[in-house]
Design goal:
Oligomer: heterodimer
Distance between the termini of chain B: 25 Å
Number of helices of chain A: 10
Shape of chain B: rod-shaped
Number of domains of chain A: 1
Largest sheet of chain A: none
Distance between the termini of chain A: 41 Å
Number of helices of chain B: 0
Structural class of chain A: mainly alpha
Strand content of chain A: under 5%
Helix content of chain A: over 70%
Strand content of chain B: under 5%
Order of helices and strands of chain A: HHHHHHHHHH
Shape of chain A: globular
Number of strands of chain B: 0
Number of strands of chain A: 0
Helix content of chain B: under 10%
Radius of gyration of chain B: 8 Å
Radius of gyration of chain A: 17 Å
Largest sheet of chain B: none
């Protein structure tokens, strides 16, 4: 475990905490895409099936359980909780995420490390994570205004991806057999998707102004 | 064939 990986994981965890805080404190999920949250829940469920087959470390197991649990809790809140549900921007969150799921599954069948059920599922989760932020970014783009906590949430998610890239570069040079090219290529795509958001995030930070995305 | 290392990332 290197410092980039650990900071990346902590940033990922922080992003989820910020989202839970927003939902819990304001009883509102405005600006948050339910589609993206559902995709994340699917990503974690598909990838962490190995929870039952290979043990890596206590840290690894605990983090996996936290990610699965929190993503399911967020989806549950947005669908079932009376007050939270009311604030959901349903008419802005219209991205057809089923196409993403189908496309990623097809790609995972074609491009994987080994044509075996757990490997195909792993590749599927990697591809799906890379694109699962698209409905969220589309929703923000459509609404234009981004409230403070939602902005921090998306920023932390993007930062987590950027730190993972540094982690791969570090591991590539320090470990003899480290070549996770599927994860690296998908990770690069995922981070690139945030580039536009980052640009406006830094602009608003520099000008000390409210974060606004051009429509 | 080199066995691929366990997938230890989250």
């Amino acid at each position: 475990m290197n410092v980039f990986r650990l900071t990346g994981d902590m940033t990922h965890l922080a992003s989820i905490l910020v989202l839970l805080l927003k939902i819990y404190a304001t009883k509102s999920c405005s600006g948050i895409s339910l589609k993206t949250q559902e995709l994340y829940a699917l990503v974690f469920l598909a990838r962490y099936l190995n929870l039952f087959t290979d043990f890596i470390s206590v840290y690894n197991t605990v983090m996996k359980l936290v990610f699965i649990g929190s993503s399911l809790a967020i989806v549950w809140c947005m669908r079932m909780h009376k007050m939270v549900k009311r604030s959901y921007d349903q008419e802005l969150d219209t991205f057809r995420h089923y196409f993403l799921i189908a496309g990623c599954f097809l790609l995972a069948l074609l491009v994987n490390e080994k044509f075996m059920f757990p490997e195909v599922l792993w590749a599927f989760s990697i591809y799906l994570e890379a694109v699962s932020t698209i409905p969220q970014l589309v929703l923000l783009q459509r609404s234009g205004n981004v409230d403070n906590l939602t902005g921090q949430y998306v920023f932390l998610l993007g930062a987590y991806r950027a730190l993972y890239i540094l982690n791969w570069i570090y591991r590539y040079f320090t470990e003899p057999h480290f070549s996770r090219w599927i994860a690296c290529v998908a990770g690069l795509v995922q981070t690139a998707l945030y580039a536009d958001f980052f640009y406006y995030y830094f602009l608003s930070w520099k000008n000390n102004a409210k974060l606004q995305l051009p429509s | 064939e080199v066995e691929s290392p366990p997938k230890d990332e989250l």
